[in-house]
Amino acid sequence: MSERILAGDPFGGRQPTQHERMSGKPWDASYHDGPAPWEIGGPQPAIARLVYEGVFAGTVLDAGCGSGDNTLHVASLGLPVLGFDVAETALAAARKKAEDRGIEVTFAAADAFQLSRLERRFDTVLDCGLFHSFEGDERSRYAVSLASVTEHGGTLYVLCFSDDGPDTGPHPISRDDLRAAFNPGSGWNVAAIEPDRVRTRYHDENGAPAWLATIKRA
Ligand SMILES: C[S@@+](CC[C@H](N)C(=O)[O-])C[C@H]1O[C@@H](n2cnc3c(N)ncnc32)[C@H](O)[C@@H]1O
């Protein structure tokens, strides 16, 4: 594909996700007019709790890191952390926060479906709000892609909207949806799926019902 075509392509040469096709906009547009609905001005409480519990170890990947509040919180532990996203506006904001706070961390543009292009492997992986943005076969393609960059025995934490309870988020996920995507066939074993909460700008301070899944690389 020529650079001339890529220059006018809001998707930078990658295949748009189903969410982008439905909304008619690239993910980057979510970051153009003030904070996106999931930008709460700091890390998600569930992720801050994981950090407090000391579950992050080794090299860390934050998948669909957005403007980096969770990534930076993990990186403040002093671990080597890479956050990736397709939204360049979010990545620029994340890099600025890292610089302002003096936190060493890397933010890179990458497509969740083509992670082998990173040519790196990670011990602990975080997904806060990315998995639940995918539909249909995107979920299993993502699981396979993520497995390609995760060390055997590594751990993936997925925080996603759940289908359990009133006032669910816009992309409610069932336990079966998680198990269907993350299974030995895609390189994973689900160790636990616990109820949790995701905070947003449009729910009250209790946030929306969520699952926190702990998933081991087979
Ligand atoms: C709901 S937001 C969550 C952002 C961040 N994790 C947080 O908690 O603030 C989902 C993020 O996934 C990114 N994303 C969506 N599809 C992607 C893909 N195919 N590859 C990489 N990032 C993607 C979006 O740009 C967006 O920043």
Automatic annotation (TrEMBL):
It comes from the Bacteria. One of its GO terms (biological process) is methylation. PROSITE patterns: SAM_MT_TPMT (PS51585). Keywords: Methyltransferase, S-adenosyl-L-methionine, Transferase. GO terms for molecular function: S-adenosylmethionine-dependent methyltransferase activity. The keyword DNA-binding does not apply. Residues 1-26 are annotated as: Disordered. PANTHER family: METHYLTRANSFERASE (PTHR43464), UBIQUINONE BIOSYNTHESIS O-METHYLTRANSFERASE, MITOCHONDRIAL (PTHR43464:SF19). Gene3D superfamilies: Vaccinia Virus protein VP39 (3.40.50.150). Pfam families: Methyltransf_25 (PF13649). This is Methyltransferase family protein. Residues 60-154 form the Methyltransferase domain.
